[in-house]
Amino acid sequence: MSNVINAGSGKHFFIDQRYFDRSSDVGLCMNPPRVTSDPVLRADNPWERQGISGYNTVIREDEKSFRLWYGANFISGYPQEGAVRLCYAESEDGIHWHKPELNLVEFQGSKANNIVVPLDERQSMQGATVYIDERASADERYRLWTKYQPTDAEIEAGTEPGLWAMHSADGIHWTYDDNQPNPPNQMCDTQNVFFWDDQHDCYVGYTRVHETQRRDEAAEMEHGKRYRSVGRITSPDFKTWSQPTLIVLEGDSVDLEAPLPFNHVQRPQMDFYTNAAFKHPEADDVYFMMPAAYHHWEADDNPATMDVKLLSSRDGIIWHRLGDREPFIRRGLDGGPDSGMVMANVWPIHTETETWIYYGGRGSKHNDDERDGSNTGLFRGVLRRDGFVSADTTLSGGEFTTPPLEHGGNELELNVDCGAGGWLIVELQDAEGRAIDGHTFKECQTVTANAIRTTVAWNGSTSLPADRPVRLRVISRSTKLYTFKFV
User: What is the pLDDT, as a whole number, of residue 80?
Assistant: First the structure.
C-alpha cells in the first residue's frame, strides 16, 4: 500500500500536515518557551569583560551533570587577535553554574581561570559548538567546530583563519585537528553547528554562506545581493566536506517585503544571523532550527535587534516557518540583559517533563559602539517536554484522521494537554477507513489528561491490533496534542 507511513516506535510531531489525511477545525500552534530576564550565567571575570557570547553549548551528560561551553568576549567589535575565547562551567541542576579554575590557558599572566581554548591567549575563537560524537574514538569523543583566528604572527607565517575543528577525550583538554581550516574558505561567522545525521548517514554542518556575504561581515547589500543566510554542507568523516554550500534558509519575499516605516533604506531589512539547527533525538525525521533574525532597515542598521524564530524540517534541507513567523523567543524589556539581541543555542535539554532551551542575550544592539559586558548573560527558556508545536482544537471541537500507519508498538501513547474542560477520543480504523471492532469511539475511554505520557484505552484495554496498518481518527475539544508514539 503506497500511502502507508512506517510509524515504527519513534515520536511523531505535528510540525506539518503529514498526519492530517483529513482534518476539520484543527490548527498547528507554535508554543514559545517561558522565559525570564534573569540570566543563569553572568559575566564576572576579567576575560569576560565584553560579556557572555550568544554562541554557547549546554550538554546534559546525566541527571546531575550539566556541562556548558560558553563564549567569553574580551575585545568588542570585529573578531581580532585575543578577542574571544571558549570557557567552561558545570552545574548539578542546569540553573546554578560553577566556573571551575582549570589552570589550562594563560590569560594576562595567570592560568587561574576556566578558559579551555584557544590554547594561546592571543588566538581568538568565536561561534564554537561542542558535540559528543558517539561514532568517534575515545580520545575524540568530544568534537568542536569554530571560527578560528590565529595570532597576527601566525597569520604572517601562513596559518589561515577560518572554520577549524578540535577534539578531546573529556571536553576540557582540547587538541587541534590536522589539516586546518577544513573546509577551507568556508564562511563561518556564526555559531557553526554540526552533528551526525542518521537519516542521511553523514555529518551535516550548518554555517554561513560565502555567496551571500563577504568576509568583512558587514551586511552591505550591494545591488540587494549581500546578506546573511544559513547554509548546509556534509561530510562522511568530518574531514572532507561538500562544496559549494547549499543555502537552506534566507530572507524570502515575505520577510523582505514586510511593511516598514518611511525612514528606511532600499536594501533587505532582515537576515538570519545564527541557525541552532538540530535533529530531534527521539524522532526519525524531525528537525528544528531556531535562527536569530537580525532586523535592520535604517541607514545606520537600526533597529539592530535580534529575536529567535522557529522552523521545522523532515530532512534537514527543506525548512518551513512555524508560528506565522512570529518570534519563538522575544527580546526582553528595554535596558535588560536580553533587550537588544537574543540567540538560541543548539541542543535543547530534555527532562522528564520539560524541554530547556538555552540562549544568549545582550542589552546592547548590534550597531552599538560601546557594549556593556555586565548587561549580558546566558538564559534558560522552558517548554513542556517536546512542546515546540501542537495540534490544537478550540471549545467548538475539531478532528483529524491520519494516513495508514504501520506501527511497531502495542500501545498508543500521547503527549497531550486537555486543560480543565478539554477531552480527546481516538478511533482506530483500517487502511480503507473502516472502524476496527473493539477500537471505536464508543469503546474509547475519554482522555482528559494533561500528561507527557498517557495511554489510550478501549474497553479497559490498551492493546493495539498488531497485524495491520491503522489510521488514527481523533476528535477533541479544547486540547493541545503535541506528539504521539506507539510503544
Answer: 87
Q: Is the fold of 5-31+390-486 the same as that of 46-386? A: no
- Other beta carbons within 10 angstroms of residue 95's beta carbon come to 11
Q: Which pTM value belongs to this model?
A: 0.95
Q: What is the pLDDT of residues 114-135, one digit of tens each?
A: 999 999 999 999 999 999 999 9
The grid coordinates listed for 23 are: 482534518
Closest-CA residue to 127 (of 179, 72, 170, 167): 72
Q: What's the CATH code, domain 5-31+390-486?
A: 2.60.120.260
Predicted local confidence at residue 222, as pLDDT: 46
Map residue 384 onto helix, strand or coil: strand
The amino acid occupying position 183 is: P
What's the burial of 63, exposed, middle or buried (CB within 10 Å: 0-12/13-18/19+)?
exposed
- Measuring CA to CA, which residue among 61, 59, 159 is closest to residue 118? 159
Upstream peptide bond of 303 is cis (omega within 30 degrees of 0): yes
pLDDT at site 215: 40
- pLDDT value, residue 282: 96
Question: Residues 278, 279, 285, CA angle at the centre, nearest 5°?
Answer: 145
Q: Per-domain residue ranges for the chain?
A: 5-31+390-486, 46-386
Task: Tell the burial category of 119 from Cβ atoms under 10 Å away from its Cβ (0-12, 13-18, 19+).
Answer: middle
Q: What angle do CA 87, 277, 80 make, to 5 degrees?
A: 40
Distance CA 483, CA 416 (A): 7
Q: Collect all residues with Cβ–Cβ distance below 8 Å to 277 and sequence separation of at least 6.
A: 193, 206, 230, 287, 288, 289, 290, 316, 346
The runs of H, that is alpha helices, within 209-313 are 253-256
Concatenated DSSP letters of 424-462: EEEEEE-TTSPBPTT-STTTBPPB--EEEEEE--BTTB-
Predicted confidence (pLDDT) per residue in 243-256, tens digit = 989 999 999 989 98
What cell was used for 318?
A: 527543506
Q: What is the pLDDT of residues 401-454, one digit of tens each?
A: 999 999 988 999 999 999 999 999 999 999 999 999 999 999 999 999 999 999
Residue 46 has pLDDT above 50, yes or no: yes
Amino acid at 278: F
- Least confident range from 259-268, 320-329, 384-393: namely 259-268
The residue among 286, 309, 325, 341 whose CA lies nearest residue 483 is 286
- The CATH code for residues 46-386 is 2.115.10.20
For the four alpha carbons of 407, 412, 413 and 416, in that order, the dihedral sign comes to positive
Give the helix ranges, DSSP H, for 252-301: 253-256
Question: Could you tell me the sign of the dihedral formed by the alpha carbons of 97, 377, 313, 192, in that order?
Answer: negative
Query: In this structure, how many other beta carbons lie within 10 angstroms of the beta carbon of residue 265?
Result: 14
